[in-house]
Amino acid sequence: DGLLTPRESARFVAENSRDVRVDGGGVRRVAELLLAAASGAALRAAAWKARHELHPRAADEAAVNWVFVTDTLNFSFWSERDEHGCAVGYGGGTYTGYWALCAALNRALDEGIPITSARYYATVTLDQVRHILRSDTDVSMPLIEERHRILNETGKILLEKFGGSFLNCVRKSEKSAQKLMHLVVESFPSYRDVTQFEGKRISFYKRAQILVADTWSVLEGKGDGCFKDISSITMFADYRLPQVLVYLGALKYSDELLKKLLKGEMLSYGDKQEVEIRGCSLWCVELIRDCLLELIEKKGKKSDGEINSILLDYYLWDYARDHREEMKGIPFHRTRCIYY
Ligand SMILES: Nc1nc2c(c(CN[C@H]3C=C[C@H](O)[C@@H]3O)cn2[C@@H]2O[C@H](COP(=O)(O)O)[C@@H](O)[C@H]2O)c(=O)[nH]1
Q1: What is the pLDDT at residue 63?
Q2: Catalytic residue among 71, 214, 238, 313
Q3: Pocket of ligand 1, candidates 238, 310, 333, 335: which has the most ligand atoms within 8 Å of its Cβ, to mutate?
């Protein structure tokens, strides 16, 4: 039906973009930064668990269903005033953004609320969702009503089509990441991250791709999670990766766009400039991966395990978290939507 894949979409956007461009020198510098990490533990699937205490330790059905409900809600955590947003205290730590979601879900499970069970969230009420996702500050997690609607919708479909467990959906994909991604977007409407650009229908599928990636990670790339085509998954076009790619000099914004973002102006989902930011970021990470693989080849550095766009994305996202202060001067684009 003429819908471009995320990679094709990104290439098309990058070739026709006006306010955002990929910087070749910056791409190379980021590849060199990653080369150092490539031989270490950071650029490996095991980091998904090793580095993040809120992610499940296990690699079982419960862990897969934890990933599914988390990635179903994995969108739009940014707050109007960046330094004052939703925060969740859990296990002695205080978490914000994506981690606030993980902390809230783990807190619910500790309170005996079966939030990872489709039977529960298919009919969970708005008040119950407000309680589960409650913030320790006076700023709630954004789009609570949308999150409630999506939980009910997604839970009902998981019960009807997949016996209430995302593991059944994974098994239907016959160990193909692409099949799983398409099964998810066909089955669950809230994952359909598709839009238009210059007359073409394009897809970024950010939440569907991170869901496949996190399923691969939580299953440690083994058994049901041994996707033979996992390297076909691209980076996830969210609002943090563009920010870190600009900070590292691999992506450049026009003066007009930068001025707009510095003023905190919102962009709507599907706006030309919003699509250019997401598409060029995705394409930028593809080029960084190609450059890194070239450097590894040239320097004869053995990287155990495959380097793919998922691992580069995870690394760059974590890098953005660790360099929040240094990145303060670089704006992230503000789009309020359920897709990323
Ligand atoms: N591209 C990309 N986007 C990601 C993630 C993650 C969480 N992944 C963790 C799991 C394994 C990895 O090691 C990561 O540590 C969340 N997001 C998106 O970011 C935004 C939240 O940002 P902030 O407001 O700062 O929390 C929001 O759109 C959310 O959907 C990622 O990995 N890549």
Answers
A1: 98
A2: 238
A3: 238
pLDDT value at residue 303: 62
Given a contact cutoff of 8 angstroms between Cβ atoms, the answer to whether 74 and 147 are in contact is no
Nearest CA, atom 18, ligand 1 = 238
Q: Is 238 assigned a catalytic role?
A: yes
Q: Summarize pLDDT for 108-137 with one digit per residue, the tens.
A: 999 999 999 999 999 999 999 999 999 999
Q: What is the rounded distance in angstroms from the CA atom of residue 100 to the CA atom of residue 247?
A: 24
Location of structure tokens 């440690």: 220
Q: How does DSSP classify residue 277?
A: H
Mutate to test the pocket of ligand 1, among 240, 327, 334 (most ligand atoms within 8 A of CB): 240
- SS3 category, 26: helix
The burial class, CB within 10 Å (0-12 / 13-18 / 19+), for 161 is: middle
- pLDDT tens readout for residues 155-211: 999 999 999 999 999 999 999 999 999 999 999 999 999 999 999 999 999 999 999
Predicted TM-score of the model (pTM): 0.98
Q: How far apart are CA 110 and CA 94, in angstroms?
A: 16
C-alpha 277, offset from chain centre = 15
Helices (H) and strands (E) in the chain, counts: 15, 6
CA–centroid distance, residue 233 to ligand 1 (Å): 16
Share the mean pLDDT of the chain.
96
